[in-house]
Design a protein that fits this description.
This protein is an alpha/beta fold. The longest helix has 13 residues. Helix 11 links the parallel strand 18 and strand 19. The strands form six sheets. Strands 2-15-17-16 form a four-stranded mixed beta sheet. A four-stranded mixed beta sheet has the order 4-5-3-14, with helices on one face. The radius of gyration is 21 Å and the shape is globular. The structure holds ligand SPQ. The site of ligand SPQ has 18 residues, from helix 1, helix 3 and helix 7. Ligand SPQ binds next to helix 1, helix 3 and helix 7.
Length: about 425
C-alpha cells in the first residue's frame, strides 16, 4: 500500500484551472455513441480510470472506439451493432458503468458476464437487476443477481411503469436505456430529481423523451443518430477546488469550463448559504449541458442544514462539504443521505473516520453526519479506503493542517481526476 506525503500549512492558493471533463457525461457519451448510428466525436472526454473501463467494455461488445488525448471517436452501429463478447466485461471501480450497461444489455439477444473490483462487489445491484428482470431480461449473479459477478442474457423487453424506490440517476438511466429497446412506452417516476444527463443525451442524439414533474416517458424502438459531444468540466471535481479556495486563507481561484447542469449544482447553493464568496462569471446556458466559470475567494463561513431534495444534487460532494463544515462557525447537519452508505465506500463512515483522525469534531448519524466548527485540523496518517473522493477530500484537508499528513492509497484519485495533484500544485504560491 503506497503512502503519499501531502502538503500541509499552505499559505494561499491562487491562479486558474481548466476543470477536466465530467465523469457522468463522459460515460454516457461512449454508451450513446455506441448505440447510435454513425460516427460520434467526443471532445474533452475524461480519461479517468472509470471512463476507460466503459471504453474497454464497449470494445469487448464489438464497438470500434478511437482515442487520442481527450478526444474519442465512436463508430456506432445501433443497438443491433453490439455483439456477444468473448471475454468477461470488467467495470473496475465504476458503478455507473455496470448499472447503465445492464440497461443496454437487457435488450441484447446474447450472453454477457460482468465483474468489477472489490468495492463494486459490495455495491447493491438489485435496484437495477430487479426492474430489468421485470421487463424480461434474464439476469443471475451472487445473491440472486444482487451483487457481482453478474451474468445477463438480453431478451425482447416489455415496457415498464416503475416508481424508483431510491433517488438514483444510475437506476433511472439503466431503465431508460432498456426502455429505448422495449416494445412500447415506459414510464419511470423519480422520488426526487436526480442528474438528467441520460435524458439530455437521448435528445442530443435525436431521440424523444418527455418529462412531466417527476415522471419520465420514453418510447421503445427509437433510432438514435450519431452527433458530436463536448463534455463540460466536472462540477464534482471542481468542488475540491471550490472548498480549497474557501478554506485556505487569502485564496483566489478561477475554475474554468465547469458543468452547471441544475441537477448537479447543489454545492453552489450550499456554499452560498454558508457564506462563501463564490461567483459564476461567464456561462453558457444554451449548450446541451450548460457550463461556465466559477471564481472562489476565501471567506468566513457558517454552518447549515443540508437535506431533502437537495441531497441528490450534491450527493458526491458530501465528503468535501463535510470538510468545509469543519471550518464553518456553528453546526452543520447533513441528513437524508443514506445513499452515501452504498458508494465506493460507506462515505458516512469513511468521512467521519478520516476527518476525526485529523482532529475534526464530526459525528455519524443514521442518514448523514453532524459537524461542529470551526476546528483547526492537526495531522496524521489517513486513508482513501480506495475511494477517489475520500482521497481528494483528504488532500484538500491537509492544506490547512498544522502538522504533516500522510495519505494511504492516493492512486484511487485517478478514477475521476488523473491530474488532480498537478492542478493542485499549480495553485500553491
Ligand atoms: O460511478 P460511481 O462509482 O457510482 O460514482 C459516483 C462517484 O462518486 O463518482 C458514486 F459513487 O457517482 C455516481 C453518483 O453518485 C455517478 C452517477 C451517474 O453518473 O449517474 C450517479 C450517482 O449515483 P446514483 O447511485 O445516485 O445514481
Amino acid at each position: 500500500m503506497s503512502l503519499f506525503k501531502l502538503d500541509s500549512k499552505v499559505k494561499r492558493l491562487s491562479g486558474e484551472i481548466v476543470i477536466p471533463g465530467d465523469k457522468s457525461i463522459s460515460h454516457r457519451s461512449v454508451m450513446f455513441g455506441a448505440i447510435a448510428h454513425g460516427m460520434t466525436k467526443v471532445t474533452n472526454f475524461l480519461p479517468g480510470d472509470d471512463c476507460l473501463s466503459t471504453i474497454s467494455c464497449f470494445r469487448k461488445l464489438g464497438v470500434k472506439i478511437e482515442e487520442k488525448d481527450n478526444e474519442i471517436t465512436i463508430f456506432g452501429r445501433g443497438f443491433d451493432g453490439l455483439s456477444e463478447p468473448t471475454e468477461v466485461l470488467d467495470v473496475g471501480n465504476s458503478g455507473t458503468t455496470i448499472r447503465l450497461i445492464l440497461g443496454i444489455l437487457a435488450g441484447r439477444p446474447f450472453y454477457t458476464s460482468l465483474v468489477g473490483d472489490q468495492s463494486i462487489g459490495r455495491r447493491p445491484m438489485t435496484r437495477v437487476t430487479e426492474p430489468l428482470m421485470r421487463m424480461g431480461a434474464q439476469i443471475d449473479g451472487r445473491k440472486n443477481g444482487g451483487y457481482t459477478p453478474l451474468s445477463i442474457r438480453g431478451q425482447s423487453l416489455t415496457p415498464l411503469l416503475y416508481e424508483l424506490p431510491v433517488a438514483s440517476a444510475q437506476v433511472k438511466s439503466a431503465l431508460l436505456l432498456a426502455g429505448l429497446q422495449a416494445e412500447g412506452e415506459s414510464q419511470i417516476i423519480e422520488p426526487a430529481t436526480t442528474r438528467d444527463h441520460t435524458e439530455r443525451m437521448i435528445l442530443h442524439f435525436g431521440g424523444e423523451i418527455n418529462k412531466s414533474y417527476r415522471t419520465i416517458t420514453v418510447k421503445g424502438g427509437q433510432k438514435l443518430e450519431a452527433t458530436n459531444v463536448h463534455v463540460p468540466g466536472d462540477i464534482s471535481s471542481a468542488a475540491f477546488f471550490l472548498v480549497a479556495g474557501a478554506i485556505v486563507p487569502e485564496s483566489n481561484i478561477l475554475l474554468k469550463n465547469v458543468g452547471l447542469n441544475p441537477t448537479r449544482t447543489g454545492i453552489i447553493e450550499v456554499m452560498k448559504a454558508m457564506g462563501a464568496e463564490l461567483e459564476i462569471s461567464q456561462s453558457d446556458n444554451l449548450a446541451f449541458e450548460p457550463f461556465g466559470d466559477l471564481r472562489i475567494k476565501s471567506s468566513g463561513l457558517k454552518g447549515t442544514i443540508i437535506e431533502g431534495d437537495l441531497i441528490p444534487k450534491l450527493i458526491d460532494e458530501i465528503p468535501i462539504i463535510a470538510l468545509l463544515a469543519t471550518q464553518a462557525f456553528g453546526k452543520t447537519i447533513i441528513k437524508d443521505a443514506h445513499e452515501l452508505k452504498v458508494k465506493e465506500t460507506n462515505r458516512i463512515d469513511t468521512v467521519v473516520q478520516e476527518l476525526t483522525e485529523l482532529g475534526a469534531k464530526i459525528e455519524a448519524t443514521e442518514d448523514g453526519m453532524v459537524i461542529y466548527g470551526p476546528t483547526p485540523l492537526t495531522g496524521g496518517r489517513v486513508k482513501s479506503h480506495g475511494d477517489h473522493r475520500i482521497g481528494m477530500m483528504l488532500a484538500i484537508a491537509s492544506l490547512i493542517s498544522s502538522e504533516e499528513v500522510f495519505l494511504e492509497n492516493a492512486e484511487a484519485i485517478s478514477v475521476s481526476y488523473p491530474n488532480f495533484f498537478t492542478h493542485l500544485n499549480s495553485l500553491k504560491k
